[in-house]
Design brief:
Number of helices: 2
Shape: globular
Radius of gyration: 12 Å
Helix content: 10-25%
Largest sheet: 5 strands, antiparallel
Structural class: alpha+beta
Distance between the termini: 8 Å
Oligomer: single chain
Order of helices and strands: EEEEHEEHE
Number of strands: 7
Strand content: 35-45%
Amino acid sequence: SSGINAEYAGKIVVELTGRINKCGVISPRFDMPLHDTEKWVNNLLPARGFGHIVLTTTFGIMDHEEARRKHTGGKILGFFY
């Protein structure tokens, strides 16, 4: 799956480039500070470099890789792989 394309009317559009094996919503929206990224990746995703954790940050909604590049944390919305 590729990046998140657009957000409008409270909906997120994600363009799929493959199959989704599993996806989940995390409730409540736990805080994921930048220094805890690795811990959450290990807890939620099946393997390193595989899957995405979706976060809401002060820079908008993004996956954990983009958040890491922007040196920000956020609240976890969910995950997919």
